[in-house]
Every structure is written in C-alpha cells, then in structure tokens.
Prior knowledge:
The protein is of the alpha/beta class. The chain contains four helices and eight strands.
Amino acid sequence: MAVTRPRTAGSADTGLIAVNRQAPDIVGTTLDGSAFLLSELRGRPVVINFWGPSCVPCRTEFPLLARELARHAEQGLAVVGVLTGDPPDLAGAFIARYGATWPTVTDPNKGIKAAYRVVARPQSFFIDRAGILRSIQIGEMLDADFERQFTAIAG
C-alpha cells in the first residue's frame, strides 16, 4: 500500500520533475486568497510561469503571456503564475497595473519552486491536457519560443 503525505498550501508533489512525465500538482493560495489546485486544470493546456515583479525579464515577458492567453482562449489555454522572490503586495500592485487575468499562486515555503526545480526567473513549464510536462523555458520567452512550445501542448 502506498503512503501519501497530505499536501498543504504552497506545496507540490515531490516526484521528480521531468519532460514527458506528469507535472507535479500544485496546491496553494492565490494572491487574492483563493484556493488553487493545478490538477483542476486537467484537460486544458497550461503554462506555469515562475516570476516576480522585480525581475526585469519577467516584466518584459508579462505582456506576451497576456497576449497569448487571449489569442489561444478558444483552445482553453490556462496561464498560472507562481510568485518567486518578491513579496505578494508588490506582485499584486504589478498585476493590478497590467490587468493580468490569470491566477498567481504564492510560494511562501518555496515548496513549489523546489518541486519544479526552478533555477531562474522567469521560468515557464508547458503542460499538456493530460497533465504531462512537455517543455521548459528558462529565461524570457519570445513570441517564437511560446508558439513552438504551445504547439506541443495544444493538441
């Protein structure tokens, strides 16, 4: 019999993250205080973006995420931010100013960051409809980067 540990806010499954394997589930709380569970997005292509407003490439990439989310709405694209390295109030102000419509999950204990083995900001993970991680983008995405990786998860 398998033993599982209860998951707490700001946590992710501790299995090894790897391309072509199930992405770790994320359990957390968004900046607006809502509960978040990544597995509830199963059936949709998902981009998880680890970011923070003090990160210059993150700020540059933010409009690209907003544009692509709108552009691929009919395909069910979901974008999820994970706040890394900055306080929630700073991120909340940035999100309000730029009108982001996607959730940003806080990671106060850095459990999500550890489970996803995040090495830099921004870092994005492209997850297909079955919850399988298909690609990882380390550093700022350009339009061509997004399109190439989105194609792998949109099917």
